[in-house]
Amino acid sequence: MGGLNTSLLVGIQALEATQGALDATSNNIANANTSGYTREVAQFSENAQTVSGSDVSGGGVTLDGLQSVRNELLNLQIQQQTSLQSSADAQSSTLQQIQSYFTTTSGADIASTLSAFSTSLTQLSADPTNSSVQQGVISAGQDLANSFNSTASGLTSAQSNADGQVTQAVSQINSLTAQIAQLNGQLSQSTTTANDGGTIEDQRDELVQQLSALTGVSVTQTDDGETITTGNGTPLVMGGQSFALHTTTGSDGMQQVLDSNGNNITTSILGGTLGGAIEVRDQTIPNMLTQLNTLASQFATSFNSAQAQGFDSSGNVGQNFFTVPASSADAASGISVAITDTTAIAISSDGTVGSNGNIANLSAALTNALPSGQTPAAAYSSLVFEVGNTASNASAQSTAIGLNLKQLTNQQGSVSTVDTNEEATNLLRFQTAYEAAARIISTIQQLSTVTLNMGTSGGY
Amino acid sequence: MTTAGVLDRDLKAAEYLQSLRSMTDELERAMQAIARNALPEFEDSIDNQQVLSARLATLADDLCAPLEAETAIARAMIDEDMMHQIRSANETLQRLNQSYAALLQHSSRSVALMASLFSSFQGQFQEASGPRLKQQTWSCQM
């Protein structure tokens, strides 16, 4: 049996150990609302037994240190989802801006001015010699051309804004990677001491989280700390060293992202504000501009052909009504009305004054299919639908990822008290519930068509 | 169309509108439940959604089926205000359904990943030894 001293020693060790645990608990409570704080737990180990003759007594307990309870899987998931959400947010905000150019309430959008142009031709058909009605056709044509110009200008402006985000994001990335590298250095030194280093790790996790919001990254634990690369493997941080990204103006006038060796990595950057801005700048907007330019170019060509089929008031073959730049890439931004004189409208089909025979051809240019296969109005509607759908998708993604992030964060918050058996069961229940939910989603989608048809045909 | 037929149709249209709104509420509830990891509430919402979707499908069939009277007259008797409300509720529901579908997609991926980890790991592992040892993942604390 151990003596009194042994008992006292065991008691003191137990008190010290308990004090350490209490300190950890106090610290946890104090930091309950600290962003990025990771809960710490006291780690105990049993001391060696004391043998005195035939007596064997317990050696008490020792506090080994404080340990941060981390969940690397959840951290990884949160980083990935943060990156996706920032990308969706960057796209969504730009697309919301773009949407406003396609559906204005002032009647200045292409659909409204196209309709007004059509109406002006109908009025001209009824009163072909009235100069004010003829002037109305030219004015409506100018309004239509202006609509194309302003929509193209809006898209280009949104593209420039996205380009600005690229430069800004690269600067923020460089600042964060430098800070992370510094913390890596501090952490590698703390391994030689008895310190947990939890606080530094918390700071680093917080910075990595912020970095994820800017671009998709891959994080690997190494002996030197964390190695962070972009999705395609471009190093950003290796231990205590950071590798700055650079930007340079490309041949298209847009900012290109270069790695520390000067390689252009723009196209391989995915996720985060940077990835979202690059995607919307280099893919989404150019695709919309191409469709808009095609519409402007084909419509102008079609209407000019209709003009050429008729004769103006002087009996000459109709000249071009619209002017479009030689390059179809500038058609929407450069389209304008070529004529200013009302007598230049090719109203007559035979060159006689009072004839309105060619107005049918002019009107048909608005209702006939363009080479793209759609009428001008239908082609524009498709474009508007695409813009709206893309914006709606980005917004839905952002909402969904935000909620998923909340779910992961909640899970991370309860990481220390998790009952694994219960969690395993819950995961299976979640999967079953998701399957049931997927069927309901499909039913709701089908309901949409039915509801839209109600009151129009075959039903109420 | 008989008066009783019109009355029945109006009642069904009103119920359809109410069901669309209830479904919208349920989707919002389910999304919040997922975010909070409130599984029982999520399952409860799914049950309600199933009941509502079955009722909506039945009502939609009824409302779209041709009645005994002339279609033209039936159309003329549509309550435009009701139809407007139905279309508006439908638009709201569709938008939410889009977000709900995206949330399920993202969340499913997370859950599947964690479920696979549960089946892979049977014990603890530690990243580093010494005072800085870390419990790597929550699933690995088993």
Task: Name some characteristics of this structure.
heterodimer; A: 460 residues; alpha+beta; 2 domains; 4-stranded antiparallel beta sheet; 10 helices; 12 strands; 11% strand; B: 142 residues; 4 helices; elongated
Describe the protein's architecture and organization:
The complex is a heterodimer of chains A (460) and B (142). Chain A is 60% helix and 11% strand. Chain A is an alpha+beta fold. In chain A, helix 3 (110-126) runs antiparallel to helix 4 (131-190). With 142 residues, chain B is an all-alpha fold. Chain B has one domain. In chain B, helix 1 (3-35) runs antiparallel to helix 2 and helix 1 packs parallel to helix 4 (80-120). Chains A and B meet through strand 4, helix 2, helix 9 and helix 10 of A and helix 1, helix 2, helix 3 and helix 4 of B.
Mean pLDDT rating of chain A: 83
Query: How far is it from the N-terminal to the C-terminal residue of chain B, by CA?
Result: 68 Å
Gross geometry of chain B: elongated
**If you compute it from the alpha carbons, what radius of gyration of chain B comes out, rounded to the nearest whole angstrom?**
24 Å
- The largest beta-sheet of chain A arranges its strands as 5-6-7-8
Number of structural domains of chain B = 1
Unreliable stretches of chain B, pLDDT < 50, 5 or more residues? 121-142
Q: Brief description of this entry?
A:
The complex is a heterodimer of chains A (460) and B (142). With 460 residues, chain A is of the alpha+beta class. Helix content of chain A is 60%, strand content 11%.
Helix-strand blueprint:
The complex is a heterodimer of chains A (460) and B (142).
Chain A: H1 4-30, E1 40-46, E2 50-52, E3 55-57, E4 61-68, H2 72-102, H3 110-126, H4 131-190, H5 198-214, E5 217-222, E6 225-230, E7 235-238, E8 241-242, E9 246-249, E10 255-258, H6 272-308, E11 322-323, H7 331-334, E12 336-337, H8 359-367, H9 376-413, H10 420-453
Helix pairs in contact in A: 2-4, 2-5, 2-6, 2-9, 3-4, 3-8, 3-9, 4-5, 4-6, 5-6, 6-8, 6-9
Chain B: H1 3-35, H2 39-64, H3 71-76, H4 80-120
Helix pairs in contact in B: 1-2, 1-4
